[in-house]
From TrEMBL:
GO terms for cellular component: nucleus. PANTHER family: RIBONUCLEASE Y, RNA-BINDING PROTEIN PNO1. The keyword Iron-sulfur does not apply. SUPFAM superfamilies: Eukaryotic type KH-domain (KH-domain type I). One of its GO terms (molecular function) is RNA binding. InterPro entries: KH_dom_type_1_sf, KH_PNO1_2nd. This is PNO1 second type I KH domain-containing protein. Keywords: RNA-binding.
Length: 138
């Protein structure tokens, strides 16, 4: 499991990584082969996505795709949301969404509607409209 987790950091981002068992932390640092200035930030986002509960495959997609981000919010903080083209993890009272900036905003709107008790049909209608819009863009 450790090798599967560490391999993308070493191969894609050209960073050094080690597991410090004494302090119970993952240590990541740059080296002479690191070319991307944002590599440490991307490795931290990858690690956070995996530790949050996203699959290793989904977290690895964050390293390969530039426009993919993760956002977390408390269910109690919800005002309104929509959703499409995102991955969602719900843990206790926190919701973690991975996708593009626009997709995350859509997902937050739909999730909020559902949590606030709005009809499921309304959320499905929003999702259909968003999906149609995305299909037209392609």
């Amino acid at each position: 499991m450790w090798e599967d987790y560490a391999r993308p950091i070493v191969q894609h981002l050209k960073l050094q990584i080690r597991l410090n068992l004494k302090r119970r932390v993952v240590e990541i640092r740059t080296c002479d082969f690191t070319t991307d200035a944002s590599a440490l930030t991307r490795a931290a986002e990858y690690t956070q996505a995996f530790m949050t509960g996203f699959s290793l495959q989904d977290a690895t997609a964050m390293l390969r795709l530039d426009g993919l981000y993760m956002e977390s919010f408390e269910i109690t903080d919800i005002k309104r949301l929509k959703s499409t083209r995102t991955r969602v993890v719900v843990a206790d009272k926190k919701v973690h969404v991975m996708g593009s900036v626009d997709s995350i905003q859509h997902a937050k709107n739909v999730i909020s509607d559902l949590v606030l008790g709005r009809p499921t049909a309304r959320a499905n209608k929003k999702l259909s409209a968003i999906a149609t819009r995305y299909k037209r863009e392609l």
